[in-house]
Design brief:
alpha/beta; six-stranded parallel β-sheet; transcription; Rossmann fold; single chain
Length: 342
Amino acid sequence: MPNTRDGRPSQRDIARVAQVSQAAVSLVLTGKATERGIAPATQAKIKEAMAALGYVPNAAARSLRGGRNGLLGVHTFERIFPVAPDDYYHEFLVGIEEQAVAAGQDLVLFASTQRQDGTRSVYNAGANRLRLADGAVVLGRERDEDELERLAAEGFPYVLIGNRSGAVHPMPYVAADYVAAVAETLEALQAAGHRDLAYVGLDQRSRPQAERLDAYGTLLAATGLSSSEPLLVPHGGVGPEWVRDQRATAFVVESPQHGEEVLELLADLGRDVPGDVSVVLLDVPRADHLAAHVSHVGVARRTMGAAAVRVLLGLLDGDLPRTHVEVVPCTPLRGSTIAPPR
């Protein structure tokens, strides 16, 4: 049972569970364990006990002591934590882990933030669980803007993977350069001789999708290209009639799933890609055989994950301000499904 009056676990509880002295726990919490000769295995046992007990350090007291515990948190707003290799966000997590290892930091994946309905909240149990760590990297498509504002207002150090421009309470973020990626795509289509395009995107608009489409609309005039009204539908919603009726000589497609639909429908209609029509995706195809030849730009997910950790450590060290923004170039256009129109 916790020893504190309010029922929260204490350092004594951690020492009991980890079977170490309370002094060792204190050294880990103040970030002085290594210099005082506490073995890495012992430090790991203490951190595991902290996580098991749900111990949340007093951030203000820890700051006054000048200590950091060397734990970086990872919170996702996705319903499933992106540990599976085929999950879109998995590559972000790989980049986060690689950079944390390089910097000698441990990671805490905050899985207990999941609500009963499957969504995730930093404040699921009423308190900020992320305070167990020195700071956190936050990612996910279904992000809660109110929680991000609250975290920043409380002064909790975090870095968001994704654009957060215009926030009332700033905190650093790492964003993909969608404008440059779309510009490269349209310039390649223009250079191949295309003039009429068609655009396919998701009906549920998150910020990354909106940035791509906004860049597309802005850059069309600059490149002298024209486009039919963008088709914004759920995955599985691209109809054969729409594809058949398009006068476009090239399709620009937001998501890999829609890209697969468009390619399949064109094949069913007997239209050769790229002989009859060109297709380019604004993200990396899911299947390796498609990624090898379908023209696409891509989000540099692993690079962005690593950048988020570097920015977070810079914020914690006082080297970067809360207003810091890092824009990461997308992967360059590659593939062979852009060809001159017939």
